[in-house]
Amino acid sequence: MCGRTSLFASPSTLEERFDVAVADEYEPRYNVAPETPIATIRDDSPDALEHLHWGFVPGWADDPGEWNGLINARTESIDEKPAFRDAFERDTDGSAAGRCLIVADGFYEWQDRTDGTQPFRVERADGEPFAMAGVWARWEGEDRAVESTAILTTEPNELMDPLHHRMPVIFDADDERDWLGDEPPAKADLLEPHSGDGFEKYPISTAVNDPSNDSPEIVEPVDAPESDPQSGLDEFV
């Protein structure tokens, strides 16, 4: 699962790293939560960093306000689920949907322990931003439109396994633009979790639990007591 991210890299860093234009409205975020804007690079506008609503609403939904937005999509069923299939295959039948990169410089995961829940931050050891796999869709009504997105998840690697049974699909830089191509990639490639090379994790304050706490203090490491993770976690979308 991936339910919280951050992106506070400078606009110049993002422009150089992803070869995109960053709008003047860009603001650093330390605690990006579902149902709020999240930074993306879409397949139909690969030269721009944009912000979409994090909580997927398919174009055929009756009303996005009544839709339980999906923040994650499982790679194992991405081409089977009606909500995500068109976006993954880009077989849109005239409606706007497709694949995108979710840009972040870290994400958060909560480890269930016998003595409570401990949040962790996962980031590149060099602090550089990276891209995760996403799908997006545009819902249009009579007086408004909603462009939304979800992050693809897969099985955990060795780094993530102690924290959760799912993790986001993370691309190496050389593979990012392939995800935005015309043809959908083989699911087998997506099911392989990132190696974890170049990434690290560390415990952080429970202040991250409150999305209104959006400041540099969120990413500071803390001393967390040792505890064995619980088993039998629930399945997520």
Question: What does this protein structure show overall?
Answer:
This protein is 11% helix and 35% strand. It is mainly beta and 237 residues long. Mean pLDDT is 90; it is low at 230-237.
Brief rundown of the structure:
The chain is mainly beta and 237 residues long.
Individual helix count = 4
Distance between the termini: 8 Å
Largest sheet: 5 strands, antiparallel
The unreliable regions are: 230-237
How are the SSEs placed, and which strands pair?
Elements: E1 5-7, H1 11-18, E2 21-22, E3 29-32, E4 37-42, E5 45-54, E6 72-74, H2 82-89, E7 97-104, E8 106-113, E9 116-124, E10 130-140, E11 145-154, E12 167-168, E13 170-171, H3 176-179, H4 187-191, E14 199-203
Parallel strand pairs: 2-5, 5-11, 6-11
Antiparallel strand pairs: 1-3, 1-8, 4-5, 4-7, 7-10, 8-9, 9-14, 10-11, 10-13, 11-12
Descriptors:
237 residues, mainly beta, five-stranded mixed barrel, 4 helices, 11% helix, disordered C terminus
